[in-house]
Specification:
Distance between the termini: 50 Å
Strand content: 5-15%
Shape: elongated
Largest sheet: 2 strands, parallel
GO molecular function: endonuclease activity; hydrolase activity; RNA-directed DNA polymerase activity
Pfam families: RT_RNaseH
Strand order of the largest sheet: 1-2
Keywords: Endonuclease, Hydrolase, Nuclease, Nucleotidyltransferase, RNA-directed DNA polymerase, Transferase
Domain Reverse transcriptase RNase H-like: 2-66
Structural class: mainly alpha
Radius of gyration: 25 Å
Number of helices: 10
Protein name: Retrovirus-related Pol polyprotein from transposon 17.6
Length: 155
Amino acid sequence: MDPTQLNYTTTEKELLTILFALDKFRSYLLGSKIVVFSDHAALRFLLKNPDAKSRLIRWMLLFQEFNIEIRNKKGVENSMEGHLSRIEREHDPMPIKDNFLYEQLLHITMPPPWFVDICNLVAASQFPPKASWLYRERLQNDAKCVPDTKINSVL
């Protein structure tokens, strides 16, 4: 948080963390129902308050882009998170470097998993392009489907 945000009220800090998470994961969350559990009951009422500060009104406009529901969870039921949020820190942690160029992301490559040929055969009747005749024959004749209940006995 920057120095100005450190002076926010507890309620504003709670809203700011939710807003940060929504902004960070925006592409994944748009169009989904989002349920936020908080031990700060004032959040629900603050979002419905028409006489809020201008900063909170701007935040409410950002919240309207999402299908968000804020539910109250009592502090007693939320003990682990309460303890984690109260840990004293001597200094601010190092910022997380999360700015990747799209070109860098596209260069991350992994070999396909071993079962990709079987999946392509089952889903689309598509053999691997450079598969030998023997490999094609084995894929067609030796591939078996195993029910979920029997997987552990096969492995």
